[in-house]
Design goal:
By secondary structure, the protein is mainly beta. It contains 2 helices and 26 strands.
């Protein structure tokens, strides 16, 4: 019993030693918690941060990192998310941007101003829009990236991207236009394009296509013009 009591006293003393000072230091008490901005140093897509306008549900007008907080359902006559600034990263956070019937020629994600650059769209689903699923324009947003996006059932191309850009890990299925269209100087890797009414994958000059699969598209599986390299790809049916 004496040994147990001594051990308990020792543990209690050790706890006191590690508990810190009983009296707080002089001066005002400051929080040790992080702010929401420090925890999530990005901008949420919502009506306060990114209000839409006459042709968009949400509109990004400044460079920065943005993210979705939920699914987006389209309305007639509006893009889902419109981007009019360079230097934008939009993380779809695994959420779904879904168009509706007879909504008109509007995109799920649309870069709509010529001369933009350095735009990234990643990690989500874009389906059923009246034009492109993701539209970064053949001559609109250069040096841009689309990563891990699933585009299906859109009335235009599933994914359309500008010059000197990258598309990686994406899937484009059953779009009325092409599955994936990339302008000159771009790289497409580890993507699939299937059951699109147009071509599976179409590129401009000087592009690289690697590790992709094109299956059961309405016209050609993969079309690449002069100065392109195609490796480790499959085109069937």
């Amino acid at each position: 019993t004496g040994i147990l009591a001594a051990a308990a006293l020792t543990l209690t003393a050790a706890g006191l030693l590690f508990a810190g000072p009983i009296n707080p230091p002089a001066g005002p008490v400051s929080s040790t918690y992080k702010t929401l901005t420090e925890v999530e140093p990005r901008i949420a897509i919502n009506l306060t941060n990114t209000p839409g306008d006459a042709d968009s549900l949400f509109k990004i007008t400044q460079p920065g990192s943005y993210y979705l907080t939920g699914n987006i359902i389209g309305v007639v006559g509006k893009h889902g998310v419109e981007i009019v600034a360079s230097g934008v990263t939009l993380d779809l956070m695994g959420f779904d941007l879904s168009g509706i019937p007879a909504m008109g020629a509007f995109d799920g994600v649309s870069a709509s101003v010529n001369g933009l650059a350095n735009i990234t769209i990643r990690n989500g689903s874009v389906r059923g829009w009246g034009d492109e699923g993701v539209d970064l324009g053949t001559n609109v947003a250069i040096n841009s990236t689309v990563i891990d996006v699933r585009a299906s059932g859109n009335s235009g191309n599933g994914i359309l991207i500008g010059r000197d850009s990258t598309i990686s890990g994406c899937a484009a299925r059953a779009n009325t236009g092409n599955g994936i269209t990339a302008s000159s100087g771009s790289t497409i890797s580890n993507c699939t394009a299937s059951f699109n009414t147009g071509r599976g994958i179409l590129t401009g000059t000087g592009c690289t296509i690697t590790g992709c699969s094109a299956y059961a598209n309405g016209t050609d599986g993969i079309v690449a013009v002069s100065g392109c390299t195609i490796t480790n790809c499959t085109a069937y049916n």
